[in-house]
Amino acid sequence: MILGVSDFVTVFEIARGSNGVFAGEVFRLLVGIAALIGGVTALILQWKDNGTKSWFGPVFVIAWGLLWLYLHNFPHVFGHINNLIGAYRDGQYQVVEGQVHVLHEQPATGHTKGDIITVNGKQFEVNHFYATPAYRNTLVHGGVLQSGVYARLYYYNGEILRVDIRK
Questions:
Q1: Ramachandran assignment for 152, one of left (phi > 0), alpha (psi -120 to 50 degrees), beta (any other)
Q2: Are the C-beta atoms of 164 and 11 separated by less than 8 Å?
């Protein structure tokens, strides 16, 4: 039985700023760029000063900034955010509705897989420690997807974009 929209309340809806992932990535990008600019500036000042000081510090900061930018893989992270937002905006998601069953609960400290839940036969993993703008509130961190709750989940590639629960 599919219930009407008015029978549900939306408790999560994906947005660019969900879970602070976008802001965190922008901050990390700025840290890497600042390190590069600072290292190059120090290197240029060293060169203008005829190299009287050690070149190790500026070269180290440049290398660290490049490694920082490489390891954070910003194109992938920003692409992932854009894919999820675009899928929700363009209606490319799937919807499942039914009673939630919790198969595994993630402890507060993590160190294991996330909450494993099923809704109408469709299984999801909700992991508090996964950096995504999609739904990631585990039960121990205030999540609403507990056993017995009747929910409607909008999802794309296994990630939950919206959570509606029955009033």
A1: beta
A2: yes
pLDDT category of residue 45 using cuts at 50, 70 and 90? confident
- E strand spans, the chain: 8-13, 94-104, 115-119, 122-126, 150-156, 159-166
pLDDT recorded at residue 1: 54
Q: What is the pLDDT of residue 110?
A: 86
Show the tokens assigned to 42: 């120090």
Q: What are phi and psi of 25, to 5 degrees?
A: -70, -40
Report the alpha-carbon distance of residue 74 to residue 32 in Å, rounded: 11
Gap between the Cα atoms of 55 and 86, Å rounded: 46
Structure tokens, 157: 């590639």
DSSP per-residue string spanning 86-115: HHHHTT--EEEEEEEEEEE---TT-SS--E
Q: CA angle, 22 as apex, 17 and 27 as ends, to 5°? A: 130
> Does the model's pTM come out above 0.85?
no
CA dihedral 112, 115, 123, 129 (to 10 degrees): -70
| Confidence at residue 49, expressed as pLDDT on a 0 to 100 scale | 77
DSSP code at position 65:
H
What is the rounded distance in angstroms from the CA atom of residue 31 to the CA atom of residue 47? 24
Q: Give the per-residue pLDDT at 104.
A: 95
